[in-house]
Amino acid sequence: MHFTSEQRLDDGALEREFTLGEIPGILWTPASASAPAPLILLGHPPLGLRKIYPRLVARARHSAAEGFATATIELPGSGDRPRLPAAEQARADLRRAMEAGEPVSDEIIDALILPLVDKAVPEWQAALDALLSLPEIGGPVGYSGGVISIGTRLAVVEPRISAAVLFAGSFVPRAMFEEARQVTIPLHVLLQWDDEGNDRQAALDLFDAFGSKEKTLHANMGGHTGVPQFAGDAAAQFFTRHLK
Fold first, then answer.
1. CB 239 within 8 Å of CB 144
2. How do strand 23-29 and strand 69-73 relate by DSSP bridges?
3. Residue 138: CB partners within 8 Å, gap ≥ 6?
4. What's the predicted TM-score (pTM) here?
5. Cβ(203)–Cβ(226) under 8 Å?
6. CB 224 within 8 A of CB 199
């Protein structure tokens, strides 16, 4: 991990950009901490860190105020990283299907999501290795938001993640339902009921499939970006219970 820049935000949180090989990322740490801070990995949609930065830094500031460090990395095929041709084709096929009012096929969803999950999850694990080696970062670790299939896979394969907040706002390949049954960590799932780009029934079925004994579905009216503040507050309280 190589830090490339740092700045102190006006609330005192420290923001540092880094690279992990060819992967860009950002780490935020609280203004002051007497002990290594627990860590939340900030997932996000594959839109590029520059575009999604305002939403990420808002989440990071809120978490820093609660004593958490947060970090994120650029997803494969996003930002300045090389494109993934198969994913680009699947995205074009998805647009055509939605514009024509046709159902989105399992083949399109698989081509769009599964290669991203296969490539992104090991990168998140490598980032976690590097982050936990820093003296200011400790455990436990949580995962928050992003593509729900990435969060599901991480919850299965990464034992250092103790709890996860997942956002049901992305397409779910059928293969992920079997993986969901293997998830055992506490989960807090956010669902926007009127999300026009999300298959609501698939999201409900995925929640039902999760094997966790403690799992909460927090559903609100509204579209994809209309998550109310109190829903975010409830997610923060979830992490406080499980990471502190």
1. yes
2. antiparallel
3. 35, 36, 37, 38, 39, 132
4. 0.93
5. no
6. no
Q: Which amino acid is at 170?
A: S
**pLDDT band (50, 70, 90) for residue 231:** confident
Strands annotated E in the chain: 2-8, 14-20, 23-29, 37-43, 69-73, 137-145, 161-167, 187-192, 215-220
User: What tokens were used for 211?
Assistant: 């094997």
Calpha distance 212→210 (Å, rounded): 6
183 in helix, strand or coil?
A: coil
Return d(Cα 164, Cα 145) in angstroms, integer.
8
Cβ atoms < 10 Å from Cβ of 213: 9
Q: pLDDT for 151-199, tens place per residue?
A: 999 999 999 999 999 998 888 999 999 999 999 999 999 988 887 777 8
Both tokens of 127, joined, read 């980032």
Specify whether the CB–CB gap between 172 and 113 falls below 8 A. yes
CA distance 108 to 171: 10
Supply the angle between the helices 106-132 and 148-157 in degrees, to the nearest 10. Answer: 50
The residue length of the chain stands at 244
Torsion of CA 125, 26, 86, 210, to 10 degrees: 50
Side chain identity at 55, as an amino acid letter?
A: R
Asked whether 7 and 13 are in contact (CB, 8 A), the reply is: no
Output the CA torsion 227→204→49→137 (10° steps).
90
Cα-Cα-Cα-Cα torsion 191, 196, 201, 204, nearest 10 degrees, comes to -10
